[in-house]
Design goal:
The protein is mainly alpha-helical. The chain has helices at 9-19, 29-32, 35-46, 73-81, 92-95, 97-109, 113-146; strands at 23-27, 53-57, 90-91, 169-172, 175-178. The strands form 2 sheets. It has a 3-stranded parallel sheet with strand order 1-2-3, with helices on both faces. Strands 4-5 form a two-stranded antiparallel ribbon. Strand 4 (169-172) and strand 5 form a beta hairpin. It is elongated and about 105 Å long.
């Protein structure tokens, strides 16, 4: 909604699809029934960029032919006509959410999945190590900074010899401290 200019919706979508390098299709039985999703895939295929379509399967089964079908109609029709050009999807159910996401990114960057996954794992381990080390340090600092400070204030009034009134308050930097 935010990227589209004013004009005819289908023309704007086509223009945006033609200027996009990749089309990540979120595949599920619900999206497979959407004419808009099917038309977007068809447009990308018509532009000759089938190899830049990345099916990201969040639910359902590809090429099942039943209510669990997750590929859009236009992709299924293309594969029927060209069985040698079948697209492989990236399934969250098979590899997990994190690995599926890294697979999409590796495909888009043209980097091997193993190389990117190893880098991702190193960064994850580094974050865990930093969190493990820094948490006790931060908690210790918070503990020492929140310990109540005992302050003794003595008032000597040699001239008047008045007792300290009940409910007296010492004000320092707009903070009030009761005087006992």
């Amino acid at each position: 909604q935010e990227d589209l200019d004013t004009g005819i919706l289908s023309d704007e979508l086509r223009k945006n699809l033609e200027s996009s390098k990749y089309l990540i299709v979120i595949c599920s039985p619900l999206s497979a029934k959407s004419e808009w999703v099917s038309n977007e895939v068809k447009t990308f295929i018509e532009c000759g960029r089938l190899e830049y379509i990345i099916p990201f399967i969040i639910d359902g089964t590809p090429n099942s032919g039943d209510e669990n079908e997750c590929f859009p109609k236009s992709l299924l029709e293309y594969v029927e006509e060209h069985p040698d050009r079948e697209l492989l999807g990236i399934s969250i159910a098979e590899v997990g959410r994190e690995k599926a996401f890294v697979r999409v990114v590796s495909r888009m960057l043209g980097v091997s999945f193993d190389e990117l996954w190893k880098r991702h794992e190193r960064q994850r381990k580094r974050r865990i190590l930093i969190t493990t080390i820094s948490t006790p340090i931060v908690l210790s600092l918070l503990y020492y900074l929140t310990i109540p400070i005992s302050l003794i204030v003595e008032i000597h009034d040699d001239k008047h010899h008045l007792p300290l009134p009940e409910g007296a308050v010492l004000i320092v930097n707009n903070a009030e401290y009761p005087m006992d």
